Structure formats: structure tokens, C-alpha cells
């Protein structure tokens, strides 16, 4: 299946003028078993973005190059926004039915008695008129009016408390957690090779490969569902293998950001990335309720519609312009013969990976304070993963259907959208213009308090005994949506210009590693909490709160270098 992947690129900033997309961050979106959201904040260690940044800093484009960039810019921006919207729409639409089908398959295996049809009761000489049942165009059989509904491929959905028992929900959480871990590997493994290929083949072919792998991954998962009578559900883990074709959603997002960096000047990228984030959140708000509404009729309808949309996204790649040629100058390695045609491709790849690792290691040793601050971002990523458990958590704790839960969760997306579009820009303006804070001091101050908000929001959700308190917790949690983006912006501001690519690559790699750990860990905490019962059901959010406490503590311990402290907040 596809996923929450998600490489997100952060542009560099200087200390006086922000050029990093500060508000390009969103919470980690809810993911299906393996379908990872195409979130603009999910960064991976991408070589392609580093190359784009290096080109922007190192070479001064000639007038013809500037003209070409200006010519391609509107088309690339519009198509990128459209592609993010439809991919996130497809992935988000598939989340409720995938969770419902997986829960049903597990429940049928653990509690087969629940799925036994009720005895028929004959009513002789009944005067009640027969109510015709209109079958779904996709389903084999639909039994309306009862708890059991049969669909194509042997899929049976049942509304029974037995399916919310700890054994069923714990196994479901385990499957989803490990699926997320397996789906992180293609982005980690493919970052360097596909980054190199994007310079050799172009951005568009690599992005097309990533979307092809995504479609194959989703299609394989559907086949496992269809043949669930004979194929174990854990086979869905192998769907991540298809994402090795193109690197999955992580590389797709990397290519999008790289293409935008190719044609958009650095002083305008913040605005474009901001628009991308708004489109992403808007698509999320639509996708969940839409998938939940379709699920009421037939779970296969949203799944097949999502697959059709993903296929459409593959076709959209054909109309994307290639942007790799907008850079006029040759790279130094090419000018010096470092990338001669007689050198094997594998040798070039190994050399590039080795040089990159050596550069990262040297950077860490020479910038220990920045590396310490980077740990805050890692723990923030660990805490944000809990968002992927929200849908399952809500259905289990409050007895909601998957459809109802998906609609309630739009509170978080709406809150994130309001925070990023209105609240943070206003607060940022007040800090800089009214309070006279330096840009980096403002970022650190807002990141600290966003961390506090995340801690309170996580613990509120954990303690929520009813749906009303849960909704309040969701809204409060959303107020901290800008935390990761502000930490990333701060990291970019604290390093030298020539280290921007290195720090973003390192951020991406650490985020990916964090996600591989967070999946099984928080899934296990949900399973343990369900078994313990009572207030311990909220254990995943208690765990997330602890991660946010560590992240926030690091932020409060961190001190800005002399010369960058704000007179308004000397302790920074």
C-alpha cells in the first residue's frame, strides 16, 4: 500500500529574511494499513532537493535560463497543486474502508460466531409488504437492515461489539504499525539512487516511477482483501515492496519539491510551499468524510475510486514539463571529468552515497548544538505519528463507526488549516513587527509553545472519556501544527549557507528512521492499552505526550548563539 510516505523539502533562510516555508508543516496524516499520506511536511533525505538548492546558490542563471524558468513556473505550480490534491484525496478516501475491511477480516478469524447468519423467522400470511433490496453494482450480496453485510470478494462487514475487543484491535494496530515501518524503507533506500537518476533522466520519469509503484502497491493490497479467505492479512506488508519502484510517496514528494525549486526563485518558495500545504489540508478535510460516506454503501466503491484517481495521477505526469534542463551550468564533477561515461553507474552511486555520508558526519561533529536541536524534531515526529492511530482509537473507545469517526476527525484537519493559515501568520507578524523579535528567536519561541500545546492536546485526548472531550482535544492538538515546520526553519537558519542541503538531508533521514520506530511502538502501546482497559486505553496518547515532553524540553534547553538572541526574550 502507499503511504503516509511523505519527502518534504525545506528551503533555506537567512537570519533576517525568512526563506524557509515556515508554515509548510502539517500533522502527520492518518494512514491506512500501508497507505501513507502525501504530506508536504514529511521529509526524506533526498539528493534531488539538495542538488536543486545547490544550483540555486552556486550558479547565477543566465537571462535565457531566467526566461525558461518564468515560462515553466505557472504550469509547474498549478500541476503540483493539482497532483497533491488528487493523490491525497485518493489516499485519504481509502483510509476508512481499508480499516473497516481489515477489522472485519481479523474479527471473522477470531470470532467466527459473530458472522453466523441469524435464523430465519417465517411469518405466515404476513401482510407486510416486501422491501426490495437494490444490490450494489460492485457487491455480490448486500443484506440491508441487519448487522451483517456481504460484499464482493468475500468481504463481510459486521457491526458487533466483539470486533472492538482488544484481541481484534490489538492485532489490527500491530498490522498497521509494521506496515508503516516497511513502507518507510523504500524512501530510505531509494533516496540516493533516485536522486541521482533524477539528474540523469529528469524529474518527471522518476516521479512517474514513484506513482507507478504506488498504484501497484495499492492494487496488491486490494487483491489480498479480495482473496482474504485464502491469503493471510499480513501479506499486505509485501505491498511495500512495489514502492521500491520509484521509492514510493517519499520520492514523489521529493520530485515535486525539486521541480518547484527548479523554477521558483528562493524568495518566492515560501509562498508556494504554503499554498501546497493549504491544498494538502483541504484535500484531507474532503477525503475522510467522502470515503466514510461511500463506506456506508459499499467499501469497494471508495477503494476503486481511489485506485482510479491514482491511475489518473500517473497520467498527469505526462503533462508535467521537465525542469532538470533549466540549469545552464555543468556541475563541477562533469567539468572535471568526475562523471565520465566510462565510469560504471554503480560506482558513481556508491561514490555519491559515501561522499554524502562523510559530509553528514563531518557536519554533525562540527555542529553539535544544531545536532542537539535536531533531536527535538525526531521526538516530535515520534509524537506526531499518533495521529495515524486516531481513526482506530476513536472507533474503539467511543463505539463510533468508521464513517462517523472519519467525519469527526475533520476537526483536527480544520484546526490545522486555521492554525497554519490564520493563527501562526498573525502571531509571527506580531512577534516580529510589534515585539521586535529576531526571526530565529521568534521561531524558537513559537516552537517551544507549540510543543507545550501538543503535550496538553495529547494528554487531553488520552483522558477524554466521551466524544465531546475528544473533539476538544483534537482541536487543541491542532493548535500545535506548526511545531515541526518552525524547528526545521530554525535549523536552516542556524547553519551556513553551504550546509543547508546537508542539514535538510539529515533531517529527512532522521524523520524516516523515526517513523520506522514510531509505527510498531505506538501500535504496541495501543494494544497494551486496550488489554489493560479503563483509562489505559489512552496509552498511545500518553506515550505521544511523553515524546512531545522530551522534544519540548530540548527546545527550552536550547540557546541561540550570541548575536541572534532577541532583546524581547533574552533567555533565547
Structure notes:
The structure is a single chain. The chain has 572 residues and is mainly alpha-helical. Helices cover 64% and strands 1% of the residues. It is built from 18 helices and two strands. Strands 1-2 form a two-stranded antiparallel sheet. Helix 3 runs antiparallel to helix 17. The model is unreliable at 1-32, 41-60, 126-146 and 329-338 (pLDDT under 50).
Short summary of the structure?
The protein is mainly α.
Strand % is: under 5%
Q: What count of structural domains?
A: 1
Number of strands: 2
Order of helices and strands: HHEEHHHHHHHHHHHHHHHH
Query: Distance N terminus to C terminus?
Result: 44 Å
CATH class: Mainly Alpha
Largest sheet: 2 strands, antiparallel
Radius of gyration: 24 Å
- CATH architecture type: Up-down Bundle
Amino acid at each position: 500500500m502507499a503511504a503516509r510516505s511523505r519527502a518534504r523539502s525545506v528551503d533555506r533562510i537567512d537570519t533576517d529574511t525568512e526563506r524557509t516555508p515556515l508554515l509548510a508543516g502539517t500533522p502527520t496524516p492518518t494512514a491506512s494499513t500501508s497507505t501513507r499520506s502525501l504530506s508536504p511536511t514529511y521529509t526524506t533525505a533526498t539528493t534531488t532537493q539538495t542538488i536543486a538548492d545547490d544550483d540555486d546558490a552556486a550558479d547565477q542563471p543566465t537571462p535565457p535560463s531566467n526566461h525558461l524558468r518564468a515560462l515553466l513556473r505557472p504550469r509547474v505550480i498549478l500541476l503540483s497543486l493539482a497532483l497533491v490534491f488528487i493523490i491525497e484525496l485518493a489516499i485519504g478516501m481509502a483510509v476508512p474502508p481499508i480499516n473497516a475491511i481489515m477489522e472485519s477480516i481479523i474479527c471473522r478469524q477470531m470470532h467466527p460466531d459473530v458472522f453466523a447468519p441469524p435464523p430465519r423467522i417465517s411469518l405466515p400470511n404476513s401482510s407486510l409488504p416486501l422491501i426490495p433490496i437494490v444490490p450494489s453494482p460492485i457487491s455480490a450480496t448486500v443484506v440491508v437492515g441487519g448487522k451483517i453485510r456481504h460484499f464482493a470478494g468475500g468481504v463481510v462487514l459486521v457491526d458487533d461489539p466483539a470486533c472492538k475487543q482488544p484481541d481484534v484491535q490489538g492485532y489490527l494496530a500491530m498490522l498497521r504499525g509494521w506496515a508503516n515501518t516497511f513502507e518507510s524503507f523504500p524512501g530510505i533506500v531509494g533516496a540516493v539512487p533516485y536522486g541521482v537518476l533524477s539528474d540523469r533522466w529528469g524529474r518527471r520519469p522518476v516521479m512517474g516511477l514513484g506513482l507507478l509503484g504506488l498504484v501497484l502497491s495499492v492494487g496488491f493490497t486490494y487483491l489480498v482483501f479480495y482473496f482474504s479467505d485464502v491469503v493471510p492479512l499480513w501479506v499486505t506488508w509485501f505491498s511495500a515492496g512495489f514502492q521500491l519502484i520509484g521509492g514510493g510517496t517519499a520520492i514523489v514528494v521529493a520530485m515535486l519539491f525539486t521541480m518547484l525549486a527548479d523554477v521558483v526563485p528562493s524568495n518566492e518558495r515560501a509562498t508556494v510551499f504554503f499554498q501546497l500545504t493549504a491544498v494538502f489540508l483541504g484535500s484531507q478535510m474532503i477525503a475522510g468524510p467522502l470515503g466514510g460516506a461511500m463506506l456506508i454503501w459499499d467499501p469497494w466503491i471508495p477503494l476503486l475510486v481511489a485506485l482510479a484517481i491514482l491511475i489518473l495521477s500517473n497520467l498527469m505526469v505526462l503533462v508535467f514539463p521537465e525542469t532538470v534542463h533549466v540549469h545552464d551550468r555543468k556541475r563541477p564533477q562533469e567539468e572535471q571529468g568526475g562523471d565520465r561515461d566510462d565510469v560504471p553507474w554503480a560506482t558513481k552511486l556508491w561514490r555519491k552515497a559515501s561522499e554524502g555520508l562523510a559530509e553528514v558526519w563531518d557536519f554533525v561533529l562540527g555542529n553539535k548544538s544544531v545536532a542537539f536541536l535536531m533531536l527535538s524534531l525526531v521526538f516530535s515526529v515520534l509524537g506526531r505519528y499518533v495521529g495515524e492511530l486516531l481513526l482506530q482509537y476513536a472507533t474503539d473507545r467511543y463505539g463510533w463507526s468508521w464513517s462517523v469517526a472519519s467525519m469527526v476527525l475533520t476537526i483536527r484537519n480544520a484546526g490545522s488549516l486555521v492554525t497554519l493559515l490564520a493563527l501562526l501568520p498573525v502571531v509571527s507578524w506580531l512577534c516580529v513587527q510589534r515585539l521586535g523579535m529576531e526571526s530565529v528567536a521568534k521561531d524558537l519561541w513559537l516552537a517551544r509553545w507549540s510543543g507545550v500545546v501538543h503535550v496538553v492536546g495529547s494528554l487531553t485526548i488520552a483522558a477524554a472519556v466521551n466524544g465531546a472531550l475528544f473533539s476538544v482535544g483534537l482541536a487543541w492538538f491542532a493548535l500545535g501544527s506548526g511545531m515541526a515546520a518552525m524547528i526545521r526553519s530554525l535549523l536552516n537558519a542556524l547553519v551556513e549557507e553551504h550546509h543547508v542541503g546537508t542539514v535538510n538531508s539529515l533531517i529527512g533521514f532522521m524523520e524516516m528512521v523515526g517513523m520506522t520506530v514510531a509505527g510498531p511502538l505506538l501500535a504496541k502501546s495501543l494494544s497494551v492499552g486496550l488489554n489493560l482497559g479503563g483509562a489505559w486505553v489512552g496509552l498511545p496518547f500518553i506515550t505521544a505526550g511523553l515524546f512531545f515532553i522530551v522534544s519540548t524540553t530540548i527546545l527550552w534547553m536550547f540557546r541561540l548563539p550570541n548575536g541572534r538572541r532577541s532583546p524581547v526574550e533574552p533567555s533565547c
